[in-house]
Amino acid sequence: MCEIKNIRRRCRVIGVDKIIRNERIIGMFQRLYNSDLISKCYASIAPRWMVLFVDMTLVFVSCLFSMYIVKTDNSTILSFDIDNIISTIVALLVFVTMSSVTKCHWGIIRYTGLEDAYRIFKMTSMSCVVLIILTLVGMLLFDGYRIFSIIEILEIGIFSFSFILLERLAIKSLYNKVSHDRIKRKRVIVLGSAINSIVLSNALLNEPDGAYRPVALLSLQGTRSGNNINGLPIHPFNPERIKEIFERYNSKTLIFLATHMELMKKGFADQFLEAGIELLLLNQVEEFSSEYERNDVSSYVYNIKIEDLLGREPIHTDNPGISKTIDNKVVMVTGAAGSIGSEIVRQVAMFKASSIILLDQAETPMHNLQLELEKNFPDIDIHPYIADIQNKDRLRQAFEKYHPHYVFHAAAYKHVPMMENNPTEAILTNVGGTRNVADLSMEYNVEKFVMISTDKAVNPTNVMGCSKRIAEIYVQSLFYHMKQNNDSCRTSFITTRFGNVLGSNGSVVPLFKEQIAQGGPVTVTHRDIIRYFMTIPEACNLVLEAGCMGHGGEIFVFDMGEPVKIYDLAKRMIRLSGLTPDVDIPIVETGLRPGEKLYEELLNDKEKTIATYHKKIMIAKVRNYEYDEVIKHINPMLDKAIKGESMEMVRCMKLLVPEFKSRNSVFEEIDTALEDEVKHEVIA
């Protein structure tokens, strides 16, 4: 503290402006003391007695102006007598009293605003009224003796209000200038000229030690163009003049509110990105506090993410039924260490499950997830359980030990090219593993079994997609078979089907980020390839919602919004990184991979959907398979997989799922052979 006092004393001697601008003095201070002491000095708040003292000094000056300088005659200026001294003392006592009543000197000067101006006006007005009353009383009690004339009182009030307000504004302006000079703030242009944008620009300007300095407003309507608001010029938005406007103000950054996000999604953002403008987002004005103690709007500003520009409406659910369903239940999540499984675990924990069984074979991610959950949810019992879902005996031990009420089955192989090259593992895990978990869920009377499927299960063109469709078929047929033949079992089997999730393991977004960080090239398989996207939290929240509403046997599909062109996604991500596509970072087409198709579907062509109470969740009307028929196909399929007989295994898959047509794959010859067999049968 003594070092700060020393610096303050030097500031008073040399002057604030010199301290800030003289690099030699600053360097001396930083060598003598800690480098952040000057910041602490200016970040500290002047004590109230000091503010009151300065205010009363200005009141004293106002009295001098009124009594001695503003005269209609040519009387001697600055002639003191006992009456004037008494009058001045009385005025000061009144102003001190009214300042204490109105708390005029309680505000922090660097944040002076309309509220402070009102308090100053209130204090000076009340003081003038009291002085008028005292003057009238004095005239009655002391035979016409006047403390002040009415004109002098009004002059004192006007001068006091003007001097105090100007003093506050001058200090505020000086502080902002010193703060801006001391901290190299990023120059930004604020989008919009409506009230919210003005509030944002004011908050950024007045923020102590802020990171951003607004230099202009960009009006979308152009109605206020050419005007100034709080010293910030307003320019109409013109796509052809974007670069020119930003260059004029030496800025490369646009900051905007979430209220403009829908506009940004519709291609508006691309006009700025193509001009090399960085985009910053503030979710809502209400997110930052206007209180003096927490004027920290910069902490709520962040770089716009590719998720924000998907061009689709974010999915939100607010169903108290989920909390009621999960609360105080034992929940098992398979594939818990994966991107989807781990998010399901987090959301289940937020809904206050009594205990969660984390089942996965990935050791390190499981350990990291356990540490995270134990830190964030200390009241929930977390049980990491290393197991491969292909090992039914190991799974049985978990069911026997924990007896879960709900099972969320997210464990699966999901990479299309990898499974096309290792097809037997896709069947052993995605079909055989799902069968193990489903059978045990039924055996141990789990209340609900919710399986995570994929849009690639619709009209599959690869082994992975077909393996997930077969898993869907098995789970659904098992439910109806159990319903008809086993009255004692009450397990509901539910399937959820959705597209790609941003940020998941294997998603193109992390891949593109890595490629951009390495300087490119960014690789896309085809210029016209499109995919559906949603964020991981959105997808998992819909999984919980569907699991809550499902009664058994349903395949729920999610409204994924409009599909996204992967090539456009790559260009946007490059621009968001401040680079230019095909100039700084090349985009290279590598060709469709084995089993890959240009677009994914959420429903089979012959399937229809039934609406639910949630507008983003539908029930797919699919063909129901007889359980015995399914088993006749799955048993030899798994047997071929165990033996490593890939071609025969895939043949079994195609017989069960006739819509499975391989593309860009060695398994296309099986389709040709099956078509020939059908032709021969028709001829025969």
Overall pLDDT metric: 79
Ranges where pLDDT stays below 50 over 5 or more residues in a row are 1-43, 289-294
Helix content: 40-55%
Using only C-alpha atoms, the radius of gyration works out to: 36 Å
The tally of beta strands, per DSSP, is 22
- Main sheet characteristics: 9 strands, mixed
In terms of structural class, how would the helical and strand content be classed?
Answer: alpha/beta
What is the strand arrangement across the widest sheet?
10-9-8-11-12-13-18-22-21
Binned strand content: 5-15%
Distance between the termini: 101 Å
User: Which term fits the overall shape?
Assistant: elongated
Named CATH topology of the largest domain: Rossmann fold
The CATH architecture assignment of the largest domain turns out to be 3-Layer(aba) Sandwich
The CATH superfamily of the largest domain appears as NAD(P)-binding Rossmann-like Domain
Q: Output the CATH class name of the largest domain.
A: Alpha Beta
